[in-house]
Amino acid sequence: MTASNELEARVAALEARLGQLAADARAAREEAAAARHLAAARDRDIADLGVKVDANRAAINALGEQTRERFDVLERKVDNGFAEVRGKLDATAAGQQQIVGLLNTLIGQQDSE
């Protein structure tokens, strides 16, 4: 082989290798762009998830507050109802005590006759 043929073969090999490197670089750039796209989509998904979690937390807190308020109202109604029933029972007991007193008076009057 002559020096010129050897040089042409080496240049051809270098050109082929250069073409392969260019293809590899292009593929790497495309993969990097795809990775950036996926990372951006993941960031958006995480941000959306954060918004949804915050919204759910707010809804749960509001529901808890409503439940607490409704429970407080119910507790007041029960307390008032018990107080009302207690008052009626006290009045009934007082009335029964008067009836007992009157009956005792009548019995005492019948015994003395």
Record field, number of beta strands: 0
This entry's quaternary arrangement is: single chain
Taken in chain order, the helices and strands follow as H
Percent helix range: over 70%
Main pleated sheet: none
**From the alpha-carbon coordinates, what is the Rg to the nearest angstrom?**
48 Å
Report, as a whole number of angstroms, the end-to-end distance: 161 Å
Q: Determine the number of helices (DSSP H or I, runs of at least 4 residues).
A: 1
Unreliable spans are none
Structural class, from secondary structure content? mainly alpha
Strand content: under 5%
Q: What characteristic shape results from the CA principal axes?
A: rod-shaped
Mean pLDDT: 92
What this model shows, in words?
Helix content is 97%, strand content 0%. With 113 residues, it is mainly α.
Secondary structure blueprint with pairings:
Elements: H1 3-112
Summarize the structure.
The chain is an all-alpha fold. It has one helix and no strands.
Keywords:
113 residues; mainly alpha
